[in-house]
């Protein structure tokens, strides 16, 4: 058995059936070499090796891959495999070499095993969303680091709030610290979205405890409690037991003591946690006393709120001004393009307000990429007539990938005259993140790199020491 040589990390596949995708399905064994003179048509070593991929011709080893009842027979060639993997070399040529002609591999999905062989024989990497985790598993199992790295890169680029918790769980199994860190960045910034994703209820207990213990989660405690209950309900279903309050509490175990009930509002606690039967009567009474009594009882639950994430602000203007005929709003759009060199999460924009006394504004803000709206919000803000900026926020933070241009837009309706920025910068260095700004063709109200509206981008990102100016923008045409 392969597992006798190297067991690899815990399999993400379990006993689920595997379906080989069309992209990774080879021709039937032997069909690639029906021509008796096939070698003459393959001028390179790569082409000749590729002709042997999943081919019975000259095959000296056969793998029976997949869980019982869902197996696939895959022919291979010991020499080719041994040149690509130290595990295969030990299996076929080492001191404890296998003498079998057939080797069972029940812990690997056939599609993932074929992806491994495709890389070994053809020097090609074909990854798909539904098989990349199982491919990473098999690459780790047989110590093929370049393929494993390609899988990790694929997962990082496809990382979103919807899959971050599940990928965190898998990255812990695979011992991929960089991928884990990327997952935590997404979970921290977009916690509410991550905690309500479908995959959250499928994470393992260790990952659940790590999430509940996280100090930097950017969400309300009531939302964290509700997600923990959803996980406990799913765990009851997996164990085929009644999802009663007592059983849910049992599934959570000591993880429940990581939930910070005392940091909820009194109304949130009274209308939810206090009535669901998860807490004992004495715990419920003690938490109510913590909210209301002068002499507060000792609690088994943390009483300090989570720190969350501290929003950072990128200022793109060095000064602001006002004139008697500027800055006017008549339903026109102020817009600017930007890109960053590190992943960040945009929270909202800072905007200028009235230069002619106090005024109310209606504002629509948008964030786009390649013309597609990623987020928008219609809201209001009150301007006190000072040159201070006023912050408007999106409902959820938006993930911004490095090296892509995004468009920030705002349409204001209110006082005719407002402050506007000047001495704009084309590049701003915020510690470990560099912002670049370009003019946007969507800007119909005069905003550009050197001057106008949207003076600030509010975001979550790597911690900074102090912002620095790298260079100011060239004059606009």
UniProtKB/TrEMBL annotation:
Coiled coil feature spans: none
Entry keyword set: Cytoplasm
Domain of life where this protein originates: Eukaryota
Pfam families, per the entry: BACK, BTB, PHR
GO biological process, one term: neurogenesis
Region (Disordered): 1-38
Biased composition (Low complexity): 13-24
GO cellular component: cytosol
Boundaries of every BTB domain copy: 59-129
Compartments where found: Cytoplasm
PANTHER family: BTB/POZ DOMAIN-CONTAINING, LUTE, ISOFORM D
Protein name according to UniProt: BTB/POZ domain-containing protein 6 isoform X7
Organism: Bombyx mandarina (Wild silk moth)
């Amino acid at each position: 058995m392969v597992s006798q040589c190297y067991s690899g990390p815990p399999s993400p596949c379990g006993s689920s059936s595997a379906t080989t995708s069309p992209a990774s399905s080879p021709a039937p064994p032997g069909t690639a070499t029906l021509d008796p003179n096939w070698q003459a048509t393959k001028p390179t070593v790569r082409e000749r090796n590729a002709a042997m991929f999943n081919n019975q011709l000259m095959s000296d080893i056969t793998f029976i891959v997949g869980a019982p009842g869902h197996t696939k027979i895959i022919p291979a060639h010991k020499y080719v495999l041994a040149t690509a993997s130290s595990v295969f070399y030990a299996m076929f040529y080492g001191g404890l070499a296998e003498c079998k002609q057939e080797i069972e591999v029940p812990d690997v999905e056939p599609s993932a095993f074929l992806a491994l062989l495709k890389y070994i024989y053809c020097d090609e990497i074909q990854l798909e969303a539904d098989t990349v985790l199982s491919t990473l598993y098999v690459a780790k199992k047989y110590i093929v680091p370049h393929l494993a790295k390609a899988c990790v890169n694929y997962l990082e680029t496809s990382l979103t709030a919807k899959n971050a918790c599940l990928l965190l769980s898998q990255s812990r199994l695979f011992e991929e610290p960089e991928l884990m860190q990327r997952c935590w960045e997404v979970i921290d910034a977009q916690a509410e979205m991550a905690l309500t994703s479908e995959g959250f209820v499928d994470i393992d207990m260790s990952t659940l405890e790590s999430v509940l213990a996280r100090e930097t989660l950017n969400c309300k405690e009531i939302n964290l409690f509700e997600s923990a209950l959803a996980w406990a309900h799913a765990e009851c279903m997996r164990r085929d037991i009644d999802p009663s309050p007592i059983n849910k509490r049992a599934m959570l175990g000591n993880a429940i003591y990581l939930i910070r009930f005392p940091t909820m509002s009194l109304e949130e606690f009274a209308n939810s946690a206090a009535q669901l039967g998860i807490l004992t009567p004495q715990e419920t009474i003690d938490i109510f006393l913590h909210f209301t009594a002068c002499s507060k009882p000792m609690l088994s639950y943390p009483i300090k709120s989570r720190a969350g994430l501290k929003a950072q602000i990128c200022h793109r203007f060095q000064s602001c001004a006002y004139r008697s005929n500027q800055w006017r709003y008549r339903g026109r759009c102020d817009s600017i393009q930007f890109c960053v060199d590190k992943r960040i999460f945009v929270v909202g924009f800072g905007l200028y307000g009235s230069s002619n006394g106090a005024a109310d504004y209606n504002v629509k803000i948008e964030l786009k990429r390649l013309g597609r709206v990623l987020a928008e919000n219609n809201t209001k803000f009150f301007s006190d007539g000072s040159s201070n900026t006023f912050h408007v926020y999106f409902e959820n933070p938006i993930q911004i990938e490095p090296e892509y241009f995004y468009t920030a837009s705002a349409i204001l309706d209110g006082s005719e005259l407002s402050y506007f920025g000047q001495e704009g910068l084309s590049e701003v260095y915020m510690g470990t993140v560099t912002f670049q700004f370009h003019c946007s063709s969507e800007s119909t109200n005069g905003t550009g790199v050197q001057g106008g509206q949207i003076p600030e981008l509010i975001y979550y990102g790597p911690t900074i020491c102090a912002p620095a100016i790298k260079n100011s923008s060239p004059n606009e045409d």
